[in-house]
Amino acid sequence: MHADAVFLDEIFVSLQGEGGEIGRPHVFLRLAGCPLRCTYCDTPRSWVRRPSFERHLGAATTTGANPLGADALQRELEALCVHHGLAPRRTVLAVTGGEPLEQADFLAGWLPRWPGRVLLETAGVMPERLARLLPEVEIVSLDWKLPSMLRAGADLCDPLGCVQVVAGAARATEWWIKIVVAATTPDAELAHALRATAGAAPGARVFLQPATPFGAGPNPPSAERLLAWVAEHEPLGLDLRVVPQMHPVLGAR
Q1: CA 127 to CA 144: how far, in whole Å?
Q2: Which residues of 8-102 form beta strands (DSSP E)?
Q3: Using an 8 Å Cβ cutoff, are 162 and 130 in contact?
Q4: Which of 27, 122, 193, 194 has its CA 20 to 30 A from that of 149?
């Protein structure tokens, strides 16, 4: 990991399309590099670090050079906010990927410079790095990757360890779990994830996210099956909801 520079995939402003912040404008900081290969991934370019990143200012897309130092990143994000008429201190910074925890050293040093709230999206890996970054973030969106939804990297996943980190944190942090489900998702896989969540964090907020068709990825479950899953697991006492990705519906980035 680099403590003094960061590799980006892209930066942009859009409406948040997933989880508990859905519908709110966020500044998106998508970091490059990911150890997992999800069947439903809609940003496969972010799997690897490249010499350049994209910046999106409305309809215009330009590129910048990787990696960026802390000052350069600050300037890039402030320019995004100015372009969209947003005040950074009132705007959520969504740190996503890729897998942001691959570059936890840089984030630990730089995140305190962001004047607004920070949302960290992670794939349920590296709980020790998540614990290190928790003091610098206000919101955690934690993916629980079902084994059937991974082509590679299942052995790296520790979603339960990550749940235990955020649920047991001394500092109050807003958080939720997101589980992407498909027409082919085995009932037993989902049941295991929900039971483990309920045991570690009673009443936790859990979003079942139907897979959005992308490339050769899986199709979503039927509405009937989604309803059946929620009804079946209601006795666990989780705040369990079905919420699809909204940015594809809106045609947003």
Answers
A1: 13
A2: 8-15, 25-31, 37-38, 52-57, 60-65, 92-96
A3: yes
A4: 27
| Distance, CA of 23 to CA of 210 (rounded, Å) | 17
Where in the chain are the domains? 8-250
What percent of the chain lies above the pLDDT cut of 70? 99
Tell me the fold of 8-250.
TIM Barrel (3.20.20)
Residue 213 near residue 245, CB atoms below 8 Å: no
Q: How far is CA 9 from the centre of its chain?
A: 14
Q: Which token pair is 131?
A: 């614990």
> In this structure, what DSSP letter does residue 220 have?
P
| pTM greater than 0.90 (yes/no) | yes
| Cβ partners under 8 Å of residue 195, min gap 6 | 236
